[in-house]
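Standup notes
- DV: blocked on the single-chain target, sequence here:
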Amino acid sequence: MPESATRNFRRRVASALVLAPIVILAAYLGGAVFVALCALAAAAVLWEWSKVVARSAEPRILAPGFAALALAAIFIVLQQPSAAIVTVAVGTVVVGAAVAAWPRSAPPPIAPVWGAGGVVYGGIVLVCPALLRNDPEFGLQALLFLFATVWATDIFAYLTGRTFGGPLLWPQLSPNKTWSGAFGGLLGGVAAGAAVAYASGGTRGVVAGVLALVLSIVAQGGDLFESAIKRRFGVKDTSHLIPGHGGVMDRLDGFLVAALAAVLIGILRQGVAAPARGLLAW
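- DV (later): unblocked, structure below
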C-alpha cells in the first residue's frame, strides 16, 4: 500500500475509533439521545449538500431545510413517525420552491430538484435510523445489524480493493473502486451482518444472510450514487469534517441508503410503528 494510502488508512481508523463508540453508545441509550445524534448528522449532511450543489451555505436551502429536520426530530421523540415523514416531505417541497424562485441569473444556477434533494438526503439520515431504534423490542438489534453490515462492507471493500486491485468497478463514477473491493465488501458485510442478526435478533440464518446481502449491495450502490453526485458537481469530498473520510455525507453515503432499504423492508412487513420487528422477526 503506498505511503499516502497508509496515512489515509490510519486517519480512517483513528476517526472510526472515536466515532464508532459514540454512535453505539447513543444507539444503546436510544430515545432523545439517539434522535439528537441523528439530527446533528442530518444537519451536517444538509449543510454539506448545500456546499456541493450551491457552492455555499445557501440560506434558501438551509433555513427551511433545518426547520423541517428539527421539527421532524421532535415528532420522532414524540412517537409520531408519520408526522416526521410528512414534515420532511413538506420541507423538501418548500426548499424546491425556494430554489425555483431563485433568480436564474444569480450564480450559481441551481435546479430545484438538486436544492430539494438535500432535505431528502438529510431526512433519510434522521428518520430511518431513528424509526428503527424506536422499536422497544427489536430497535437496538436492528441498528447493530445495520451497523455491522455497512461498516464491514466498507472496511472489507477498502482493504480488499487496496490489497488486490484489479479492474475498476465503474470508472466513470469512481476512479478507485474495484471489482475485488466490491466482492470483498460483499463477503465481509454478509458475514458480519448475518452473524449479528442471528446472535442479537434471533433471525434465521438463511434469512439473516439474505438481508445482509441485500443491504450490503444497497450500501455499495449508495456509495456509487454519491460518487456520481460529487462528479456531477466537480468535488472530491463533501467537506473535511472527518479526517480520512472527508465529510459526513462521505461517511454515511452507504449507510443512509442501507438504512432506507432496511426501514422499507420493515414497514412492508410490520408497518411504520414497528419497522425493526419487520426487518428482523422472520
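- Follow-up: The two ends are 43 Å apart (CA to CA).
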